[in-house]
């Protein structure tokens, strides 16, 4: 295997436990603020996660519950803005936490001299404060859905990270949690290590080089340990 010159992380469900008790809570609060009776329980939200992007998820939901396409699109746009505001507040209140093993993995990657980056389809309005609150200023390049609107499984976000860093894809690895994410990474020419979560446990992650149960899974930790460059003093 060629050396690692970059590790590119997804955010939602990969670096942070953000879906069930973050985004889902924010969506439900946005419904309530708009005086709508719609609510997403844990199982329903898990099914909706197959649709990448919050606004598209909302539009799909509104159409599937009887709204016209025009009404669904208008509602989705309006509520997604409100949801983003609520999500940012949850982030600032410390309600969204790093996944187990995330800090330790980043520590080892940084100690080896390999830069860490982010490629996510989330909007910068909440991604940026989340990364700052949960991890501090540790990521060299952060590409969000605000800069690259093509959502995963499009490889656009990963390709933009590679373009900005100048890193050849064969010298980088992506860390993902979902089928859409793995497909996006592979389409960008990247190897991908997948750390699934309860929502993505049944996703088809067969395109990944390794499928692990989390960022603290011994198999994932060992995979990186074997492939990171040695420290200069070793």
TrEMBL record:
Q: What InterPro entries does the annotation carry?
A: CbbY-like, HAD-like_sf, HAD-SF_hydro_IA, HAD_sf, PGP-like_dom2
Q: Where is the signal peptide?
A: none
Query: This protein's superkingdom?
Result: Bacteria
Q: Which UniProt key words apply to this protein?
A: Hydrolase
GO MF, one term, reads: hydrolase activity
- Gene3D superfamilies attached to this UniProt entry: HAD superfamily/HAD-like, Putative phosphatase, domain 2
Instruction: Report the protein name in the record.
Output: HAD family hydrolase
């Amino acid at each position: 295997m060629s050396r690692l010159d970059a590790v590119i992380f997804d955010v939602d469900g990969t670096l942070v436990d953000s879906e069930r008790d973050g985004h889902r809570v924010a969506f439900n609060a946005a419904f309530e603020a708009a005086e709508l009776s719609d609510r997403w329980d844990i199982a329903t939200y898990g099914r909706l996660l197959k649709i990448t992007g919050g606004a598209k998820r909302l539009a799909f939901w509104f159409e599937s519950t009887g709204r016209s396409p025009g009404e669904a699109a208008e509602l989705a746009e309006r509520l997604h803005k409100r949801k983003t505001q609520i999500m940012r507040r949850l982030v600032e209140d410390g309600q969204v936490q790093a996944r187990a093993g995330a800090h330790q993995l980043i520590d080892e990657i940084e100690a080896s001299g390999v830069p860490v980056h982010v490629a996510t389809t989330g909007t910068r309005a909440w991604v940026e404060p989340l990364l700052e609150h949960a991890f501090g200023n540790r990521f060299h390049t952060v590409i969000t859905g605000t800069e690259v609107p093509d959502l995963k499984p499009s490889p656009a976000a990963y390709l933009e990270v590679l373009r900005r860093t100048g890193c050849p894809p064969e010298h980088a690895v992506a860390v993902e949690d979902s089928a859409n994410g793995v497909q996006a990474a592979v389409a960008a020419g990247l190897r991908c290590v997948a750390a699934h979560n309860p929502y993505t446990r049944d996703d088809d992650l067969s395109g990944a080089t390794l499928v692990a149960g989390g960022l603290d899974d011994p198999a994932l930790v060992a995979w990186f340990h074997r492939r990171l460059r040695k420290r200069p003093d070793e």
